[in-house]
């Protein structure tokens, strides 16, 4: 497989995964905004900062719900808005149409036309806000169903999944960090499930959490769930295991000399999670643990792209 094809497949799924997370976070916070009153400090500031990386935006985003939704979904000045992410995904998909199925291309194209439809900002600002969020959410879910049920399990599939799970790891880390920052990362301060509900819903892990944990401290249980629960598909340990699986399959197919170096680097990252537990995270400090893991993943991603996609 040509490096430019692998590159496009990798980034196609990274952009789609980022958009999927964005829509779930928007849905969660939009619903939460109806449950607030004048005594609460609800703001879209945290969400906007989470999805404004790299565009020079400052942190003073105290916007109304309508302004925030327009910025997050349809504003092309935000490099991580839904419109920008889906447009980038479609550009990558268009360049590899021979390597993806017709159904995958059509689903990406469908999302592109939804987010670029005339009057979408008016719908967001009017009485059809939830209709727009639902439509984007449903079609994002359909994308994963279509890609899973139609894509052949070859090298294209492997690079697609490498992109998806690398991005998912990054997003889970960012979501955990942003939410725990609200309590200054002080895990010894008791919080109830309502405090953590936003994080769990944003990661689609609330229902599984309720089925898994019936007692204990909410702070520790929630963090154990989103970091160490192997049955939760957006936990760090599960996503890292998927990255390792697909990297191994890519290495078996490509037999590049640098594969061993890359696999060792990933092995060190995985061991940080696999051989840790909630007590060791507390001892190290949650922000330090998350930041160290994210830095290592960023380094891994850079080396992966240099080795397989010939980045300078």
SSE blueprint:
Elements: H1 3-33, H2 45-50, H3 65-73, H4 82-94, H5 102-115, H6 120-125, H7 129-150, H8 155-180, H9 193-202, H10 206-212, H11 218-228, H12 236-254, H13 259-274, H14 278-284, H15 286-309
Task: Write out key terms for the chains shown.
312 residues; mainly alpha; 15 helices; 71% helix
Walk me through the structure.
This protein has 2 domains: 1-151, no CATH class; 153-312, no CATH class. The protein has 15 helices and no strands. The chain has helices spanning 3-33, 45-50, 65-73, 82-94, 102-115, 120-125, 129-150, 155-180, 193-202, 206-212, 218-228, 236-254, 259-274, 278-284, 286-309. It is globular and about 50 Å long. The chain starts with a helix and ends with a helix.
Order of helices and strands: HHHHHHHHHHHHHHH
The largest sheet is: none
Which parts are unreliable, with pLDDT below 50 for 5 consecutive residues or more?
A: none
Distance between the termini: 19 Å
Determine the structural class based on helices, strands and strand pairing. mainly alpha
The averaged pLDDT comes out at 91
Short account of what is shown:
It is built from 15 helices and no strands. It is mostly helical.
